[in-house]
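As a warm-up, study this chain.
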Amino acid sequence: MNLGLGIDAGGTYTDSVLLDFETGEVVNKAKALTTHHNLAEGIANSVRRLERRLLPMVQICALSTTLATNSIVEGRGASAGLLLLGYDDYAVQQVGFAPVCRVRGRIDITGEELEPLDEDGVHSAVASLVEEHRVQAVAISGMCSVMNPVHELRAAQIVRQIYPGLPVVCGHDLSLELDAIRRARTAALNSRLIPVIAHLMAATKRVLADFGVLVPLMVVRGDGSLMTEEAAMRRPVETILSGPAASVVGARFLTGLDDAVVVDMGGTTTDIAVVSGGQPEINPRGATVGGRPTSVKAADIRTCGLGGDSHIRVKGNEVLVGPSRAVPLAFAAQEYPNVLAQLDELGRIDASPLIQPCDFLVLIRPDAEPTGVSGTERAVLDLLSGGPMSVWHLAKEVGLMHPALLSTSRLEECGAVRRAALTPTDVLHFTGEMDTWCREASEKALELYARRLGVDAQTVCRMVWERVKRISVSELLCKVDPRLDGGHGSRAYNAVLNGLLSDSDGGMLRWRVSLDRPLVAVGAPAAVWLKPAASVLGAKLVVPPHSEVANAVGAVTGTLVFSSEARITLDSDGAFVVHSALCMTKHASLEEAKRRAVADVEQVLASRLREEGMKGVEFQTAFDVKDEYASVGDGQRMYVETRVVGKAVGKPAFSKNAESGRNG
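Now compare it with the structure written out below.
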């Protein structure tokens, strides 16, 4: 067997699979809860549940992870400094990063030097960043470096001379887009992530070594392709949306469909992507994470806060689902028997409508308490050390006059405690479609919700189903037809949505749609919850085998991709100017410029392959050369620019596992 190990550290679960590349079959699979405070712990728990005897036979290993995405969203990461070359005050403010140092030296939009680089300024700036701000990495971005990288390259050389070993990244290495603000922000985020990803890679490799897996570790990019360990530690920002992208690749592998809409429903979120021609569609503007636009080319993913562990809440006579996440009560009661007794007591009291019917709090990380813990917060932490407690019971124990006065938001935000409540997973336990944990807890919780709403438990289940269907249909409509996204929430949009979801004719209009691509459901709860949405949209629902671990399958079945790009423009003297990651050169003819651009791109790719140690991997290199013209009337065209994109694509080489070799 040629075995590959795929691992996906997701928002709720960490999945692992062993895949035989000779047959294309999943040989073994496992799940464990993700441990956000230490992802390697969840990875170890998941891999531990695989067949131990097979692990030393692994020859390829790849990881998809939410670490980069979550670190940006939560503002976590190592201390990094940003060196801006030629930026004015307004541009520095728009980048919105600290600590930052600005150095004189300007390249204009044509790539010509307007002002030489202030090399003494670079010396003093980087000394300030390292000595005063104690940064662990430095990002360098020049205002027009994509047209001529000479200033960035020289500044990076100076930094490496002063502080050998300090990670340095240049903006033009990450993106050749003209948006200098977005490019600087991307470079800065990349620098912050370098130590974070390096720590994860080292911890994961130690875990794998304990199980006899001694092969190189690869990581999934945000576009679904693979990058080597070395590349991931240089360009960790490219792992943004790694997990959702892996699910798209996994869905493609498991179904063989070249054109589909892939819906990955996990415990926390639902991610929707479109596959065309066997490849995930890429967001041309770059990924936006946590409200921060970046220049990272990633799969065009639409994400909403809907999953198997979405918090179900009562608001008036309505049931709301998500976007926040909660521990399913079925799971909480399985782990902590005292949950059932508290649910019984909640059934005997008349709880306030100002709080949810049966929300609990669970102590997750006692060491993660916020600064300046209040007396009430300390009492809550002490009480939860004996096991989960409902909000009502906690408020009573700490002596509050009303349970609505209990504030635990700071404890939840820092990860010390987590909310446990009714979730879609509990609904599936009640209906019998799941039997993993304690069904009795789910039943008791639904009875409490039913009493609050003045209906029976079955009606509450139907209300949850209808809410999930509405969210799913709405999100899918906006994804497959962006024109609808602009009107999301408008009266016209809601009329269309209500018409589609209504069982009655609603008058003379009958709303019907037909999705001309299959809907591929991956993720543990997706197969059940997406059936109603597929019916409303007139779509064929495809649930592939092993759909619950599609992300891990996608991680190990991806391809290695390296790319580089050059641009050709025409200057005022009629010369064709090549702008590449190496330098700027001028040429008398377009054909001569194209040859130089292709040669530069080829040289950059060859250099990157050497840096990443790509021995034994056969790459197919292709170049896409596109000329752009503008119409100037009377059928005439004016040359604008040429883009040259080179891609080297290869399948990972099978490595002889050192542990297997010793055993042999």
